[in-house]
Amino acid sequence: MLYKISKNNLKDYINYLLERYEVWGPKKINNDYVFSRIKNGNEFSDVRTLLGPKDLIYPPQEKLFEDYFHEIIVLGVKSCDFRAFKMLDDVLGIDNNYSARRKLVHMFNFVCTEPCEFGFCTTFYGPRLDDFEMQFTDIGDYYLVETNTKKFINNFFEKADKNDLNIAIEKSKNVYKKMQKLNIKKLNERISWDNPLWKEFSQRCISCGACNFACPTCFCFDVYDDSERYREWDSCILAGFTKLAGNTNPRPTLDLRLRQRFMHKLKFHYENFNYHLCTGCGRCIEVCPVKIDIRDVIRSVNP
Amino acid sequence: METRTVCPYCGVGCNAIVISDGKKILNIIPSKREDINYGTLCIKGWKGFYYASSRKRLKRPLKNVNGEFKEISWEEAIDITVKNLKNIMEEYGPEALAFQSSAKCTNEDNYLMQKLARQVFHTNNIDHCARSCHASTIEGLISTFGSGAMTTSIKDINNAELYFIIGSNTTEQHPIIGSRIINNVRMGKKLIVADPRKIQITNFSNIHLRHLPGTDLALLNSMAYVILDKGLYDKKFIEERTENFEEFKEVMEFYDPDRTSRITGVDPELIEKAAVLYASSKSIIFYAMGITQHTQGTENVQAIANLALLTGNVGRPGTGVAPLRGHNNVQGSSDMGALCDFLPGYRRVYDDQGRKLFEDAWNCKLPSVPGASLTEMFELAFEGKIRAMYIMGENPVLSEPESEKIKKSLEKLEFLVVQDIFMTETANYADIILPAYSFAEKQGTFTNTERRIQLIRPFLEPIGEAKNDWEIFQTIANKMGYDWHYKNSEEIMYEISKLVPQYGGINYECIKNDGIQWPVVNCNGTEIMHREKFTRGKGRFMPAYWKKPSEFSNDEYPFILTTGRIYYQFHTGTMTRKINILEREAPEPFVEINPEDARSLNIRDGACIKLISKYGELETRARMTDIVPKGIVFMPFHYYESSVNKITNPNLDPKAKIPELKVTAVKLVRC
Amino acid sequence: MNQMLPIRSKIIDIWDETEDIKSFLIEDVIGEKPLPGQFYELSINGFGEVPISVASWNNGLLFSIKRAGKITEHMHKMKKGDEIGIRGPYGKGFPVTRKFKVLIAGGIGLPPARSVIEYSLLIGDNNIQLLYGARSPRDLVYKSLLNEWKKKFDVDITVDVGDENWKGNVGVVTTIFNRIRDIDSFFYIIGPTIMMKFAVLELKKMNVPDENIFLSMERRMKCGIGICGHCNIGRFYVCKDGPVFKYSSIKDIPEIFF
Prior knowledge:
With about 300 residues, chain A is of the alpha/beta class.
């Protein structure tokens, strides 16, 4: 179903949602944009934030056996993040907390019409989704809204037509025009254990783990007890990730761990699920203090 | 809710936005601001804030009753504290009291603690860990430039052509600054690293000078020799902006690299290359504990300043001298005068004019003789001359040399009050423990290494009955009859802005967005210092002759132990050891030993090894690595299980009173 | 159902096997008979969980645990009747087959080998040979059982370092490979990684096909159900696709041995 809502009405629509749900979305804090709780339609910004809303369904740290989850709406999700959740579903779907939150979190994605600085999503799926809850695209004075449910539609929305849809598709094609598409043909077969980039990256990597934490598809977690049992986001580039009692370590050096990160994403996960564990959002590059770039890995395999 | 705050760990002062619900942290997001951390954080930023909501936080005041700590009310705790401090002061004089402030607390906290010591308790016996880290920077740079802080800004790093890092393991200690340097070097800038260890950043250095610990002055003087010899010095700059050049030239004549290579162990050709490179580029010198923690720490810093003056590499964009301050607010706590010989704003306590400013503002007479420095405090306590101590947010039992003596000193005290957020090894000796706010619960300001005063905001509700540090001081002052009535930290900053010229006129309004770098005039900050003139007018060359460190490897103690930090833990581990991932990455103490040395001593990797110095002995695990050269071993000081400061060198730099922690003679044996 | 939630059980009995290995008999509150080579996650509140291979399941689940880290150190201090959490059984175990099976076990690898032996004997299959290597005679586990087993099938034992009373073979377990009865067997190798590496090398020298070699891999594990990522090797998760792997499936992965 196709609807449209004027940009002027968006604030009021958000206030309408706020009467019925807890709403989260991108907010401007000084010069930064973060996903946080919105209390008023004015607070929403249609921007790409540094970190996606992964924490809203899969928090950075949580008590494992807590069972209070509640319904929220997240506005302004980017397609790269939305798709990432579909990938996370394949792994964390059997997890109690993740699947509970997944059912209760509604995501309204906003389609990018301009490429972001480090993103390369057109290599994978691009800025438009074919499976969504409410997909918003900026088509000028209006947002086109594609949806399969009337649940969130109210009288602020008008019906839209094929022309509006075409404008939306054209606008998203702008991203394809400006963004370099990388060659991922047979990437999983061609990427090699001996790629010289692993050693090169390890020279400057400072082991901050930001690539894993910012990545919308990374799912690894560590479990620990502190009178109760907790889990927290983990990073496969850290030595303790694989260190065994007795101090032996299958990946004792940083280059082997960086290798694990890239090969897991681009080869091992592909072998299990037939897709690369990456949506081309570019966040890992953006948060890396020394700008280690996954696109360099892909280019080194398929120049 | 979303709260902008500043990381509580190192001096880079990365900005982060914390998403929280008041009771716990929900997410941490780095700020994208280009001029500091450009959307990045090190692992302590990502994972390290959670200590604030640890179960182990101190929630109620505690009283030591026969070795056990019992919870008591705030009223009782303050009563006991005031009574004891007052009685000891009245019976033995104010010099029997000592105060230790915290480089982790805000400027407002520090300002009030030194005001408490000086106005309320009439003593200059207030000091803090800056004494053990950059006290030599303060002395060294004040004597050469007039001001003891980083002369340039973090973002100015992008404008330099060459980086000279000496005595700083930048990627581990100031990771985001280290990363910025690496990014620039990868784009073509040049890097010289002088460090006995093969630290990560040497992967990118054009020249790595691997000199012996304690020979920095000889090394730096040799570089000056080469620059003078080859005529690569900036004649115009020297003439217009400096003084004492002639004496400097005379002293440098002794430091021909061919001769000094016998001292430093560095190939004279390398020194020549490094010197030429430094002199012919827009260069910034970065340094840290490897330079400062020596009996010649002050002279080392002066030698660095001399190089900058010699080549005009200060006061212009892309140049400067950058002491990398360790703690999140050690620059601020020093600015606030939590030092035994400085009032806020770096006026000496014996400077009558400077002291009068405070005497007028605080309406009281202030002591004019410098008090006991940090190390001296424990000496005097050991001798029974200091009888009471008030320690806030510090853990000297682990962080200061001669820790066994420090324990005995604390035991000897008649009264010890410790104000902190967790039980620490030091708090175990306290009579009274006062629970305080962590950075997560308070509003206030931190000043980072580039002199940027930044606002921190609370994102967690207070824990238990913990109180804000400055509020506790206010209660004590009130009980002592002083009418302090600050309603909030902003009012304290208002007072600071009137009395500390570098913070002149600032208020939370003008710093609330991006912070502001001092010196400040009417809310205008200073990115690069010493542009037209130095703080002291002309830059002064302060040449010095190299002397041997207070001890060196010898027949009985054939190895040199140098200490330092690692990336995953921070200082005494009070905060980082409460975090699962950080503790997992670095769970236990170790000593780095060169594989050849290990083999000759028959020590296997991971085996128990005993280190013995003149001052004590300890056991720990050996870690074989060629990061350390032969003859040198390295141990971090984060672990109470093997506290390296049991055996480290307590000899002090006579001016700065900083211990020579970087050079201790040791012998190694298998356990 | 929360897959990470352990089920409350208790320790029926504890006894020493060697200086640093204790056996724990735990009440089987789950009731699902494990297959040989599978493991359970044992949980201690406030300390954490450890993945341990099950050794036997007669009147309870038997685990023989070496004191190696913080959690196992705490477990060694526990007593009969203490509460313990348990979840499982997890993983893919050793193939159940009547084909001749040579079990090559090193040190703490004997408990999982025992699960294969007991399962086989239960179904009347004694096509087994056990090659067992330990550090020293004092480190031999299940000493009385070994004697029982000797009556039913070939058991060859070696120690790295002997003592005054030891009359058997001295040397690493590969030194008794000459005693292997039938080279056309399945080889189940369980033990420290370094031992597995040399065992495989030796078997390859003897031209044993890759498909006949099975390894019980060891990795840091947390969830036990393939979602935390710690035990990932290549496309496999040791907890879910292993811990037992056919050598042919994993031999091209450079990091299987370390």
